Amino acid sequence: MSGAPPLAARILEANTQALKGDVIASRYRVDAVLGEGGMGIVYRCTDLTANESVALKRVVVPDTEHAEEYVMWFYKEARALAALDHSCIVRARDFGRLKDGSPFLVMDIAKGTSLHDLAHAGLNWQNIYYITDQILSALAHAHARGIVHGDLKPSNVLVEERDGQPPLVHVLDFGLAWLKADTHDERLDGEKAPEFKPHAGAGTPGYMAPEQIQHEQHHVCGATDLYALGCILYRLIGRTPPFTGNAKELLRKHAYSEVPRLVPVFEAPPGLVDFVMRLLEKRPWSRYEFAAEARRDFAAFAPKNVTRDGFILPKIRSAPVRPLPEGQGRPGRNPNLDAETERTTSLISIRQSPLVGREDIRAQLRAICDEVIQSPEPMQRLVLLVGPAGAGKSRIAEWLCQTVHEEGTMVPLMARYRPLRGPLDGVVGAVTRYYNFERAERAAIERSLLQRWNIKKADREGRTWVAGAAEWFRPNSQGPDAPIGPSGVRFAIDSVATRRTVSRHVVRRVGQGRKLLFWLDDLHNASDSTFEGFQRMFIEDRDQPYMIVGTVRAEDVHLGTPSAERLKKLVELMGGVAIDVPPLEPETTRELLRRSLPLEEDAIEEAAKRSRGNPLFALQQLHAWALDGKMVQKDGVYSVPPDALAVRPKTTAELWKARLDAVPERYRLAAYAIAAISSDLRREVLRPLLEDLGLAADECIFALQRAEVLIPRGPGRYSWPHALLQEYLSAELAQRPDRTRIYRAAADALKQHPLANSRRVVRQQVMNLIQGGDPNSAAALLFDFLHASWNGAREPLSTLSDLDLLRGRLHGEMRAHQDRWRSEALRHVGRTTEARDYAERARATFRELSLPIDEAHAMRLLGHIFAELGNLSEGKKLAEAALETFKGVGDILGQAQAESVLGEIDYLLGDPESARAYVLSSEQHFAESDQPLGRGLCLLLSSWIEHSEGAVDKSRRMALRARSEFERIGYRLGTAQADASLAHVEHRLQNFHSATRGAEEALAAFESLRTPRGQAACRRLLAMIAIDTDEADEAERHVEWAAKIYSDMGDPWGVVESKVLEAQVALLRRDFELAESKLAEASTLVVEEPEPYQHRLLTEAWCLRERGAPDLGSARIREAMHRFPNRRQIGDHTLHLLARLSRYRWPESTVTLIAEWRAELVQLARLTAADERSP
After folding, report:
1. Beta carbons within 10 angstroms of residue 312's beta carbon
2. Mean of the per-residue pLDDT values of the chain
3. Strands across the sheet with 157-162, in order?
4. Which residues are registered as beta bridge partners of 56?
5. In the chain, which residues fall in CATH 3.30.200.20?
6. Distance CA 738, CA 744 (A)
7. pLDDT digits over 204-214, tens only?
8. Pairing of strands 577-580, 637-639
9. Cα separation of 427 and 1127, whole Å?
């Protein structure tokens, strides 16, 4: 590659004219010209080896700036055809390059008459049906292999008449094909398939789908070809196209005008017109997703009375073949037409590896798959394909995905898990590819999902899911200043649980009740959260049928390793099956090699022997010989010289090294340095990295591209040709003596990344600094990120994972900061006791090092933790001490945080005035610090305070304002908390239906966010509602959940409240002994909050009245009235318990007491509502 001129220039400069008699690639004698077009010229040739007529296509390169693009498009057609093996698609026979650099493709000669000509003559329904059925079958085959034709039209379909049988269809010209997936295995030769620029506008007016015309690249899919087929059917059945006009008019009408309803010229089967009109829907998702689905529906229109004569086609005068001048060409006349000898790889360089053998494994997989497909009830199955690297596990899984796609029986989703994670790894990558969003911008994704999911403007929930999905696909900068997309909603994925909830919702949208097939490649590399996500999906989404096929490298899952344990747990949960994929038998390996390439037996035998039954390694032998120019073709068969057979061929790792050796030495350092950036390679990061290392950045990047070490993926973006190359470079980098300098330069360069403030990029910087021997700088970077992110969206589980990177690496002050942040995260996930231990250790270190501000943060955190553990007095002391420190140094944000904690503690202690003062001050300080999250939390706390005093309208208003603040920054935990507060307001007003709905929605959010405290609060509220409506069974179910969560968290307030509710359930069932037992247990637990005392005393009054002791019960009511400092302040269940008690017979004084207390509370609510309405 060094110094060679561009391919297009070599083609243009060379004498490439082929004349009759010339022999191309020493094998194909030119006989005539079959056709010419903008993409190339097609010759009819004689294959001198097989003595058969073939079609040979060569590119015609225009003398324009788009010359290279034309070559690439031609190469893409070769890749498309090489991946296909269908009776109705022209078969590729050979592929190569000539000495002038131009590629050529050899195909079978397709016989027959153009459907374009037949359409003009007119066809009967019998022929139309069988022609269409075969086109649908061909499209199903191509689409299943990730290929969209893109230019389907009558002139690209040949119809071959067969005596007394349905005519045979040949689909031609994949020159505009879209490769949505590349089936070539880069591990074989180390070559990445070229990246092709999508050409959404390419096609033929009159047959182009609206998404092609409007350049909506992310909407081009199999349904695009079905639109073209709809145009063909419209013309065949109605003898007129859907629209007429010049090219410009046709494009406009197909894009925007409603298609006139089809009027058949013959008696059409019922429903046929509707079928055609569905194919012509403007939006691709309104058509069929799978050609096989369309084919199944189309089968209903099969002709009833099929006759032999009905298959006779109209006689069409065929266009003459353009002859070439006689006698001007001869073998060897033009050396530029000889085959390139450096790399003689034929179709093996672009074709999917054949799948040979493995019949027993495929049969077992197919049986399980059919079980899921045919089951009338939703079924979930897991299969693991376990074997050594290169055993063919992925090829087997790919075969299954292609099969079910071609059948239209399942929706395949392919997820890859690499050791070095990339942006499109995992389920997000699978769904991104499904929706074709790889190159789509964030706004385009939101617009697409709004349309695909049919989300109306008034559907706030639907728009929220769209915003969440877009954030999952394309993470945006978080915070109130981030742009809001077409959904009109800002959404922050602030936890692993939120990400999992969004992903599951999107997957369900993909499924829409259909059966899914997940192919999880290299599942052993997946993270804990990935496995937990699939476990939760299995437990909670039992109405979604699916099958998971995971490939697992046996050498990476030794017994007892974390990967093995995770896999074992998933298999046990799902009742999964592990299928061993052993090495191939020798004869099967030989057959694999034969089907890959026409090769002499001695080379086959040598490659099979060296491979030891490993199909990847067997094929690597062929590629190594081919890439080294050791293969010689003679009479259509390739041979390898004996001296080459005696030398060990190169493995993939050696190919990577050889490729790196092809880079000039002065640029080689750049490859190792870029490996430290991971897989998201951007010019704005690579430039400062390379310049910092004293390299010429642009020269390095260009040199690495020429050597195919870097692959351009778009303006200023690059990727590795294969993850194995990055792994190789990373391993080599770790051994270099200058690695420390490189890692630190990489960490510094990542500051220029457009997503420099995202967790993924910060994490990469942290790992580089650790590898660069600077854990303190890594810690400082991470702690700065956590400080910023925790003032916005919070991700406690991700925070714990990030902190684990630093485990055992820090000491002194830095370890104390690590302890403090670990405590913050643990508190949020309900591990309060652990959180206390880490916070206390952090506080002790900060005190020892005389760091008062940091100690104050630890004390504020401890104050919150002690309050949640029921020690409100100690918590208040700690928070007050922290506040004094923050005031002393003028730390406004620290003051706001401490005041917020104190406000919550005083609210729990029943001191609303003090709580209100703290909250108001905290809100002001958060506003000064520009912290909408903190301000929202203050508004939420104000709502709770007002609710406790009966000001329900004000409480609702505060909760709604808080929700608005949380929505503004996309903080889902906050919106869930606000929804729970609003449900409490509805409960207070005895709007039980609205309260239940709100509590259930909040509960679902808390469960998805894995927030145990929120879950317990909602369960408790739902239990209270059920008790108030006398639904004992429902109440018991919710109380059991709440009691368990509160017990697990060690929350004494929650434990007491749960026991009181359990007593109330027992009273509903008139089980007085159980009620008394639960109340006795509650009375032994000491809490500082007045609320659970009040609830317990009123419940004891209820129990005593049922037991016939009204006087004792009256005493409990009087005691309950005075648990708070004033009578207007009550617990959240008190009003409802008073309503229940008022229905019993009591002494007159007690009746009056209950009535006056209730009246006072109702009057208070009216007065506060009036105050709210007054100007």
Report:
1. 15
2. 86
3. 113-114, 157-162, 165-171
4. 43, 106
5. 9-13+21-110+322-337
6. 10
7. 899 999 999 98
8. unpaired
9. 56
Structure token digits, residue 274: 């509707």
Encoded amino acid at 380, one letter: Q
> By mean pLDDT, which of 394-398, 494-498, 937-941, 969-973 is the weakest?
494-498
pLDDT digit string, tens, across residues 771-780: 999 999 999 9
Its CATH architecture, for the domain 9-13+21-110+322-337, is: 2-Layer Sandwich (3.30)
State whether residue 188 is helix, strand or coil.
Answer: coil
- Can you read off the two tokens belonging to residue 52? 């058969």
> Closest Cα partner for 408 from 271, 294, 546, 274?
294
Q: Which CATH class is domain 585-650?
A: mainly alpha
Specify the domain boundaries for CATH 1.25.40.10 within the chain: 852-930
Could you tell me the two tokens for 557? 């899952």
351 phi/psi in degrees, rounded to 5: -90, 150
Q: Model confidence over 240-250: pLDDT tens digits?
A: 999 999 999 99
Q: Can you tell me which residue has the tokens 């590896």?
A: 353
Task: Specify the CATH architecture of the domain 113-311.
Answer: Orthogonal Bundle (1.10)
| 182 close to 193: Cβ distance less than 8 angstroms | yes
Tell the residue number behind the tokens 């990577």, with chain if given. 656
* Fold observed for domain 653-755: Arc Repressor Mutant, subunit A (1.10.10)
DSSP 518: E
pLDDT of residue 870: 84
Compute the distance between CA of residue 727 and CA of residue 675 in angstroms, rounded to an integer.
8
Dist. CA 491–CA 477, nearest whole Å: 10
Q: What is the mean pLDDT of residues 702-726?
A: 76
Q: Please provide residue 882's backbone torsions phi and psi, each rounded to the nearest 5 degrees.
A: -65, -40
Within 75-184, strands assigned E span: 92-97, 103-108, 113-114, 147-148, 157-162, 165-171, 178-179
Are the CB atoms for 962 and 940 separated by under 8 Å? yes
Q: What is the pLDDT of residues 103-117, one digit of tens each?
A: 788 888 888 999 999
Backbone angles phi, psi at 685, to 5 degrees: -95, -40
pLDDT band at 1072 (very low <50, low <70, confident <90, very high): very high
User: Is residue 663 classed as helix, strand or coil in its secondary structure?
Assistant: coil
Question: Measured in whole angstroms, how far is the alpha carbon of residue 265 from the centre of its chain?
Answer: 48
Q: Check: CATH 1.25.40.10 for 852-930?
A: yes
Spatial contact of 495 and 798, defined as CB atoms under 8 Å apart: yes
Residue range(s) in the chain whose domain bears CATH number 1.10.8? 585-650
- For the cut 80, the answer to whether the pLDDT of residue 746 exceeds it is yes
Q: What is the spatial distance between Cα 222 and Cα 205, in angstroms, rounded to a whole number?
A: 18
pLDDT of 967-998, one tens digit each? Answer: 877 788 888 999 999 999 999 988 999 999 99
Residues spanned by CATH 1.10.10 within the chain? 653-755
SS (H, E, C) 34-52: EEECCCEEEEEEEECCCCE
15: Cβ–Cβ under 8 A, 6 or more apart, which residues? Answer: 334, 336
For residue range 879-914, what is the model confidence (pLDDT) as tens digits?
999 999 999 999 999 999 999 999 999 988 888 899
Question: How many angstroms separate the CA atoms of 576 and 568, rounded?
Answer: 9
pLDDT per position as a tens digit, 862-888: 999 999 888 999 999 999 999 999 999
Cα–Cα distance for residue pair 328/15, rounded to 1 Å: 14
Distance CA 750, CA 752 (A): 5
- Residue 201 and residue 251: Cα distance in Å, rounded? 10
